[in-house]
Amino acid sequence: DGCSQLSAYERKRLKNITENAKFFAALKLHESAARLHQIATKRPSHVTKRAKPKKAEDETVRRRSMRLQRVEPSGIPMPEMPAQPGAEEYPQVPAGPLPMVPEDQMGDSKLTEDLLTTWMRISEVLLVIITNVLMMLSRYQDSLNSMVLSEDNIKKVVKYRVSSVAIHPSENIIFVAAGDKSGQIGLWNVNSKSEEGAHVFIPHNYLVSCMHFSPFNPAHLLSLSNETLRCGDVTRAVFDEICRSEESLSSFDFLEDNASTAIVGHWDGDVAVVDRRTPGTSSELSADIGFKRTRTVHVHPVNKQYFIAAGSVDVCIYDVRYLKSNGNKPVSSLKGHTKSVASAYFSPVTGNRVVTVCADDKLRHNNNTGRWLTRFRAIWDPKQEDCFVVGSMARPRQIEVFQDTGKLLHSFYNLDCLGSVCSINVVHPSKNILVGGNSSGRLHVF
């Protein structure tokens, strides 16, 4: 009414604005924000700390090997290694759901509320609009050349070595998550230039080896550690427990677009199928695939019944529909690796390519990170079917982009700002954004 003077286009635009307003009103954002404030300001009654082992004064003196005495077989003492944090320094995380309360309870709860509200807001927008852009190689190289690193986009997000990174698919806010070797997860709103732009949470007891924002609902951040797979739900400000296992978990990936089911790898070589819709925290199926060790699992982007597993020297593709407890045979085996395989991933659009990282240094790429750095994982750029990103041991320190032919397309480096190895990297699904994590808990955003 009263719009008779508007053109057809303007009337259509006004109708869309009205419908969108009704949609966001139905989301009841103000109620969600109120819940966040209530949870963020509530302090837990106590924090359980891991008990230190008691010293046995009358313990029998045991024979110590030359390795434990740090002595070479020749009798020459080995150089001292840098001290590593002891297990007793890590807090003990209980089973079951955990409130999204930062590690530092002395901080301003309003700042935490702002961070979580940002995550929730950008997720709700993405539930309405999802875009996917593919670029020609020449345009792709131009976009790589345009990406830079500045001091403002470097931040220590977690306390210890970064072991996993995830980036939120929002096109408006750069929002990243990092997991470290102690079980911490740091959330960082890169667009917030204040010192309080990042907060640390402790939902796990051990190294966080794998993290993904849910492709179906980016308000959910799923994270996996040795003992548990959790879902951080920002709308409820809780880290729910999806799966708990006595066997050490290594990695996971979603089997369906709605993220209701997942394939989970175990360090001892088995894989498991987990369904988030069933009650309890047990897996639906545990399957022996013949691996001594399974480091990564990844689901085919088109034919989601197939997943690829990478282990000791094995890289095999399996059909999840035919998994059973024992006697599983791969659909395909990728031969040729002679040393330990760190990861294997399908290409993002067709899945017709697989990129692996192995200690045999193929592609003339030095993958020998040593024991103090997280092992490299080559990951595909979601926007480019035939290009992948991987850390580098080269100097100056850099992150490299290769084409599937082996051609080096680009090296990301900054002599002033990047002086460390970024073992773990992630690329934004639609924007020209790359995030690299190092062994001191810092993230670098190009």
UniProtKB/TrEMBL annotation:
GO biological process: regulation of DNA damage checkpoint
SUPFAM superfamilies (UniProt xref): WD40 repeat-like
InterPro entries per the UniProt record, alphabetical: WD40/YVTN_repeat-like_dom_sf (IPR015943), WD40_repeat_dom_sf (IPR036322), WD40_rpt (IPR001680), WD_repeat_DNA-damage-binding (IPR050853)
Biased composition (Basic residues): 43-53
GO function term, MF aspect, one: DNA binding
Keywords from the UniProt entry: Repeat, WD repeat
Source species, domain of life: Eukaryota
Keyword rRNA-binding: no
Keyword Repeat: yes
Region (Disordered): 42-65
GO cellular component, one term: nucleus
UniProt subunit comment: Interacts with CUL4A and/or CUL4B.
Biological role: Specifically binds 5-hydroxymethylcytosine (5hmC), suggesting that it acts as a specific reader of 5hmC.
PANTHER family xrefs: WD REPEAT-CONTAINING PROTEIN 76 (PTHR14773:SF0)
Family: Belongs to the WD repeat DDB2/WDR76 family.
Name of this protein: WD repeat-containing protein 76
